[in-house]
Amino acid sequence: MQVSFTHTPNFITQLLPRIRSVPFTVVKCSSMAINNNNNNTVKVAAAQMTSINDLTSNFNTCSLLVQEAVAAGAKLLCFPENFSFVGAKDGDSIKIAETLDGPIMQKYCSLARESNIWLSLGGFQEKGPDDTHLCNTHVLIDDTGNIRSTYRKIHLFDVAVPGGTVYKESSFTEAGKNIVAVDSPFGRLGLTVCYDLRFPEVYQQLRFQHQAQVLLVPAAFTKITGEAHWEILLRARAIETQCYVIAAAQAGKHNEKRESYGDTLIIDPWGKVVGRVPDRLSTGIAVADIDFSLIDSVRTKMPISEHRKPLDFWKAASL
């Protein structure tokens, strides 16, 4: 099932003005077991939006998307990177960065609680270790409004994109050091953010060392890199880990300097796209079922976890 806005509805228009391989450690939240209901499926959703430099407008858009997800029967809604704010000029994100117990995140906690839905929020501009740095933080909130887990983006986007634009995320962002997997009613979730997608070792760790079943990839891919690599990379990560991948995307022009590719996707463990916002640039949601029996079937019939070679094998083979 897919739900989307193919254009901006009148009620939104009226409402918005008002309103490298590295050593990893793992952070585990094991207070909730992996889905063990009699039901083999659970419905999830992924959002697509165009965030701007207005915290209130972005929150209002997120609130409307939550309403859409709840109406569609989703129990988890995943938002894209920078869901709450995209700055118009350098330094804007640092100025609005807050701790996780600050008023911005607490509004989203209240939204999750009042709507009785889990929210994946990544990445949030979390106040960093000093006045010149923030953390790009993926926050998972449960349906009671409590923060269940956080992941700070490990791989920072220091890239010269074809066409002349140069990005230097490390100039204002402190890189994370921990890989994060967390149990939930939607299976065991692996938390990542955007540029992490290009580093398969993260996802290999999440699947084979930390038993992830669903990989979350909130992103704000550039138009150029998205056109070239977005879907290919996502499907590759799903296939090589035999996990569902939920990829919520920023879409369209945020300001005169910044444009995101969009194309929010949900992909199954066989690499099939099972959810997609039909219009790559529209505001809306994609909805799909996480089918635990499919995960088990794919992994049983092609047991790559048993066929993988240990690191010691490759050390010996390289001599």
TrEMBL record:
Domain CN hydrolase: residue ranges = 42-292
Tell me which InterPro entries the record gives: C-N_Hydrolase, C-N_Hydrolase_sf, Nit1/2_C-N_Hydrolase
Family annotation (Pfam families): CN_hydrolase (PF00795)
Q: Which domain of life is it from?
A: Eukaryota
PROSITE patterns (alphabetical): CN_HYDROLASE (PS50263)
Gene Ontology MF term list: hydrolase activity, acting on carbon-nitrogen (but not peptide) bonds, in linear amides
Where is the secretion signal located?
A: none
Q: Which CDD domains match?
A: nit (cd07572)
Name this protein carries in UniProt = Carbon-nitrogen hydrolase
